[in-house]
Amino acid sequence: MLAKEAVGRIESAVGERPIAWVIMEALRDGMNRAEIIKGYIPPHRLLSDLGISDPCDIRTEAIAQHCGATIVYERLKGSAARILGFGNKAFITVDLESRRERQRFSAGHELGHWMLDRGKVASFACSEVFFATEWGKDNPEKRANRFAANLLLPQFMFEPCAKNKDMTFDTVTSLAREFETSLTATAIRLVELGSYPAMIVCNELGRRRWFMRGPDVPDRLWPKETPGAYTCAYDLIHKSARKEPATDVQADGWIDHPRSKYYSLREHSVAISTDLILSLLWWKDERQLLDFEEDESERDDE
Length: 302
Ligand SMILES: [Zn+2]
Prior knowledge:
Blueprint: H1 4-14, H2 19-28, H3 33-37, H4 43-49, H5 60-66, E1 69-74, E2 81-86, E3 89-95, H6 100-117, E4 123-126, H7 128-133, H8 140-152, H9 155-162, H10 169-179, H11 183-193, E5 198-204, E6 207-213, H12 232-238, E7 247-250, E8 264-271, E9 276-282, H13 287-301
Parallel strand pairs: 1-3
Antiparallel strand pairs: 2-3, 2-4, 5-6, 5-9, 7-8, 8-9
Bound molecules: zinc ion.
């Protein structure tokens, strides 16, 4: 049970909204109760409070201002964005020379720090590389990335746009243009909210840094620590190419399962920096997933 005093603080933080509802929303977004007490507002609630229902209206400056944070643009060295907070006010500085989609993600990320870590830390300086690498282990950078992705690519707008689209970087590029967002965040949302089963894997210097499964991919299917020799990612790692076309490859190049060699998946890999390769793995032919589920249910019956 929450203490009476804490409940009072939540009430003042959430205004008219029912407390149980706000707690439920925030817990669903991975927040703990201390963060709820501070007045955390989930991204989809911020958008709804501001009446935003179209991607072109997701203006980071206005949303940040609504949360007490002012965004300014300056030339930055050694970081893509910074935040300095005191009391209920914060200043977010975004690198003037970044591309617009990067500036928007940087701003969303810093706003995530402001909403999630207010009171715990007064300042953050975040480098561009965090936006691509910090999606695995839970830490403040991952939480800020998640906040930015949920704010800039909200489910209720993104899902209809991604419906029945190929799980490839061609789709990602077109959605990223529409939402003015980074390739990495858009690819993650496509895997989470797209119509077909897929996985996204980020390899750094040839080894898996993080990965995410789409909701229809069984939890027990894992990508290998390093992509196999006949994958497109392998070619990107070992050659100087930046991008390979979407290609059907044998699943055992990617998936750590004894029967993977009997199946194929469609891989689309791109190099997002000299060290980082992003790969979308799409079970366009879903037989492996169906057979896997059948095997698992037979095993459970034994
Ligand atoms: Zn950060």
